[in-house]
Amino acid sequence: MTIKPLMDRVVIKMTEAEETTKSGIILAGSAKEKPQVAEVVAVGPGKADVTMGVKVGDKVLISKYSGTDVKLEGVEYTILKMEDILAVVD
């Protein structure tokens, strides 16, 4: 089964949060922040006034509390509007 976003929506898959800090300290599950970098899985066709500035496979930086989380076949995705994507990360 696949997800096909409508209008100016984008489907993303969050990247894994860092398990350790740069100094080597292992973080407990409650101490981890929600990651803000994700990979684009699907892109909607857009609207007349919205240009879809991302493509499948792009790494993006998103707003912290944006989108709707969905689980499909055991995989967690987030569906959000194009305007909630802040930047493309290289």
Please give a handful of descriptors for the protein shown.
single chain; 90 residues; mainly beta; globular
Walk me through the structure:
The chain has 90 residues and is mostly beta strands. 0% of the residues lie in helices and 38% in strands. It has no helices and 6 strands. The protein has strands at 9-14, 37-43, 59-62, 68-72, 75-81, 85-89. Strands 4-5-1-2-3-6 form a 6-stranded antiparallel sheet, with no helix packed on it. Strand 4 and strand 5 (75-81) form a beta hairpin. It is globular, with a radius of gyration of 14 Å. The protein starts with 8 loop residues before the first strand and ends with a strand.
How are the SSEs placed, and which strands pair?
Elements: E1 9-14, E2 37-43, E3 59-62, E4 68-72, E5 75-81, E6 85-89
Antiparallel strand pairs: 1-2, 1-5, 2-3, 3-6, 4-5
Structure summary:
By secondary structure, the chain is mostly beta strands. 0% of the residues lie in helices and 38% in strands. It is built from no helices and six strands.
The whole-angstrom Rg is 14 Å
The neighbouring-strand order within the major sheet is 4-5-1-2-3-6
* Anisotropy-based shape: globular
Instruction: Give the beta-strand count.
Output: 6
Number of helices: 0
